[in-house]
Amino acid sequence: MADIIDGKAFAASLRAAIASEVAGLPYKPGLAVVLVGEDPASKVYVANKAKQTVEAGMASFEHKLPADTTRENLLTLVRQLNADLKVHGILVQLPLPKHLNADEVIAAISPEKDVDGLTVVNAGRLVSGLPGLVPCTPLGCILLLEDRLPDMTGLNAVVIGRSNLVGKPIAQLLLQKNCTVTMAHSRTRNLPGLCRTADILVAAVGRPEMVKGDWVKPGATVIDVGINRVPAEGGKTRLVGDVAYTEAAQLAGAITPVPGGVGPMTIACLLRNTLTAAKRLETAK
Ligand code: NDP
Known about the structure:
Elements: E1 3-4, H1 7-23, E2 30-36, H2 40-55, E3 59-65, H3 71-83, E4 89-92, H4 102-108, H5 120-128, H6 136-148, E5 156-160, H7 167-176, E6 180-184, H8 191-195, E7 200-203, E8 221-224, E9 228-231, E10 237-240, H9 245-251, E11 254-255, H10 263-284
Parallel strand pairs: 1-11, 2-3, 2-4, 5-6, 5-7, 7-8, 8-11
Antiparallel strand pairs: 9-10
Bound molecules: NADPH dihydro-nicotinamide-adenine-dinucleotide phosphate.
């Protein structure tokens, strides 16, 4: 039976370490979160982010704009936040309403305050091995992996999914750890066979329990990024990952559960990125 990688506990200790570092700073790191519209899931995420930001001793600036906000209004707000010395991190909650172009809005964020790591500048820094800000979920995955596997040199890593938000940055981080990385996607041939070569298997697909138990190499470390809501008994729903957990846990050496694995790491890494950005910006003053 696999060891369970407890992301909830890991994230709690990471947040505690961040809070203690923040307490010793002569300034207060500040995170601005911009929410456009009334998407219920986004509202919950933003409220959680604000709560955990304040708990870490940082300043939280919430900007809620109506769903029909114009492009100009949103870009003006982002530029104001770029210039605001109390704000060290800026996050625009996605998805945006359809009339707004997320790429354009992200591009307007100062790369030094881009705590989601989504600007082209930060993506380029990651590929080039330069210090930047790394997307939060991939950062959370690599921290969990580092804890489990302090030396990943030469390990075969298979990443299923190639999104800019998750798959591509995770692959880059694994490459930096000297893994031999294969990126798989919807056109990959013989995915089960490929997965069976993986010492580290990362699933970031968005398909409930797609990765079956017999896709897992015995002893492999399995990181399940997927968050999928599926029907459950009594007309309710439950969360499952992209990996068929019970089957996979029979063969894996270690595995992240869903929920309680990668998920809690995302906000903890957002706080870490905010602290990183604050330290760099304050040093550069
Ligand atoms: P995207 O939809 O942007 O990307 C999904 C990727 O999976 C694509 O690259 C796609 O390939 C690939 N894919 C789709 N179907 C298959 C298939 N049958 N076989 C192989 N590959 C396939 O999703 P995200 O990267 O944004 O998110 C992935 C998952 O992670 C989702 O479940 C999401 O909810 C979750 N997530 C969790 C977070 C957390 O905090 N834990 C944060 C962000 C995301 P192709 O490119 O060829 O289309």
